[in-house]
């Protein structure tokens, strides 16, 4: 079967264009009134935009239909994420929550009670949730690094440990915490638990980072969690998390393509009107070449992203292709935004322009959801097999 990404079906093209119009006509004007050093959209502005997005039928488009979402596939998801990212506060989430809030995807494998208590209300009420995997001992290799433990005690588990870089834990309603239920079983000893924010014993401290949306450090001191909050079975936590890696990585890739393309649009307008030394910037090859390079990089990044997403929708193992797309698109996106900032000169550095937000967001994107080096390692391991791990094949 040939790759279906070159010619989008009419209904998807229409949806993509309508979402793009919504971002340009609804989100961008609201952001224009927000002070440049704000950390995101003001709550009342966000609520108004969410109501409009819901009315327009753009609500939680990737969540399963049976839980109140749009049920879109991975390919449709990346096509839309690219457009949803074309506004200032689009990191870490394209749309900044305007298009709804999805529960951590592992919960789609949760019990009927967990679906009723957490999944449906999250989609309905735009609750936010955190995912706590990384620890101070390391995030690249969580299967080895996780030290947090969950010990069964009658009808509850007691969680003790220390999570690092847990985004959104300071504002979330609840989160998924990964902890060991068997210290000797490696990745098979890891389980996932739903933990309500504010549970006694949890201490959350914001950690400022270079992007607008800070992260947090969370300490668990004998935090009591009902046994029914275990997601799946003991030992399944890591496997459940792995199942959703493809979507997460491809969303970052699509977001990078979207902001890179928007930064080029802004720089093109500038180059066609800005004069130096008696001629338009558009006439200088030193300006033309980065524009041409950007176009090539964006086309390549989009192709890799769409191809991986399409493979995933066919039910094939798309993990390596998702790694390729994530590392290429986030690195290319970072280079493109940087080059467009250079064309804009001083204006490119201002908070009036969205480029400096995207530049910082893309810098972080090269580390989160698996650093570039880990993605490259995964690609090389796919090529080399056991030899990549120093073992005979
Ligand atoms: C803003 C932000 C938000 C985040 N949000 C979350 C969140 O919500 N939930 C969560 O669980 N985590 C989150 N993270 C954590 C993120 O996933 C980790 O930072 C990332 O996985 C890297 O882990 P680490 O920082 O511990 O770096 P380490 O694992 O210590 O690695 C450090 C660096 O070493 C290099 N490296 C590591 N291993 C190899 C290798 N085998 N070969 C070559 N180079 C290597 C990489 O360059 C890597 O960046 C967030 C991080 C940031 C910065």
UniProtKB/TrEMBL annotation:
The keyword Repeat does not apply. Residues 235-383 form the Acyl-CoA dehydrogenase/oxidase C-terminal domain. InterPro entries: Acyl-CoA_dehydrogenase, Acyl-CoA_Oxase/DH_mid-dom, Acyl-CoA_Oxase/DH_mid-dom_sf, AcylCo_DH-like_C, AcylCo_DH/oxidase_C, AcylCoA_DH/ox_N, AcylCoA_DH/ox_N_sf, AcylCoA_DH/oxidase_NM_dom_sf. Its EC number is 1.-.-.-. Pfam families: Acyl-CoA_dh_1 (PF00441), Acyl-CoA_dh_M (PF02770), Acyl-CoA_dh_N (PF02771). It is an enzyme of class 1 (oxidoreductase). Residues 10-123 form the Acyl-CoA dehydrogenase/oxidase N-terminal domain. Residues 132-223 form the Acyl-CoA oxidase/dehydrogenase middle domain. Its cofactor is FAD. GO terms for molecular function: oxidoreductase activity. Belongs to the acyl-CoA dehydrogenase family. This is Acyl-CoA dehydrogenase family protein. It comes from Pseudonocardia yunnanensis. The lineage of its organism: Bacteria, Bacillati, Actinomycetota, Actinomycetes, Pseudonocardiales.
